Amino acid sequence: MLFQDWHTHNFLCKHASGSIEEYVKKAIGKDLNLIGLSDHFPYECLEGIEAIPYEEYAMKLGELDLYTSTAKQLREKYQNEIEIKLAFELDFIKPQVRVHKPYLKKYYEDLDYILGSIHILLRKGKMFAFDDNRFLKNYTLYDSINDIYIDYYKIMQNMISSSDFSFDIVSHFDLPKKYNKHPEDPELIADYIDKTLELIKKKNLTIEINTSGWRKEVKEQYPSKEIIKKMYDLDIPILLGSDAHQPEEVGYRFKVALNLVQEMGYNQLAYFDKRKRSFIEIK
Prior knowledge:
Blueprint: E1 4-5, H1 20-29, E2 34-40, H2 64-77, E3 83-91, H3 101-104, E4 113-117, E5 120-123, E6 126-129, H4 145-161, E7 169-170, H5 186-202, E8 206-210, H6 225-233, E9 238-241, H7 254-264, E10 268-273, E11 276-281
Parallel strand pairs: 1-2, 2-3, 3-4, 4-7, 7-8, 8-9
Antiparallel strand pairs: 5-6, 10-11
Helix pairs in contact: 4-5
């Protein structure tokens, strides 16, 4: 089987440990043939985000050159051992989508792909990172867990439909379940999921199978088996990401994940180079 990890972080994002090279070495040690370096793009270019500890969530603007130059140096150094891809994980925060563009522009030619993510919700004038357990108290701003999911998928639909937010891969599709908090009305949320998947198909995007959920309270991958089955029926492309925040998490449970998607019917994985997608066979 091919093991390619398209979602990893490193010490620059301030909430992961390990140098970029340590992740590359660990990937080589685990016989991966590709690792995607996809650290969080800086939040500090945004406005009105003082309510969240954004300096703990991503690299700084002044570290972007270090990040990209290190990736290029490692690509050269390990070219005979592993393929290294360069990317960003970019948060969608409406209405500040355009703010990223001037800072991203410098790196467009170097990027192989962009992960589109949602970590921030805005409720009753309060911004919070819903996947940070320090903000679990903010869940009470919603009338129910249903409403959190509805808010999340509406934002994702905006992200997918936005002409100002360019990205290639949808990250951790059902992230609100991280703390094992599930909708009270699954059928209601299924309607929002279906609409979101249809938009993803229409926009010809890819969805990652993110194995980090197995390390969280929910104890399953993102997205769920039920959603992956819908993705397959819609012929939505997939790839694997560990969302590693420690070197040893690279390629986390990839054998299990590949077996799962094969059971669903998938026989190909997406592959990106300079933001052009192609496909490889699962072997």
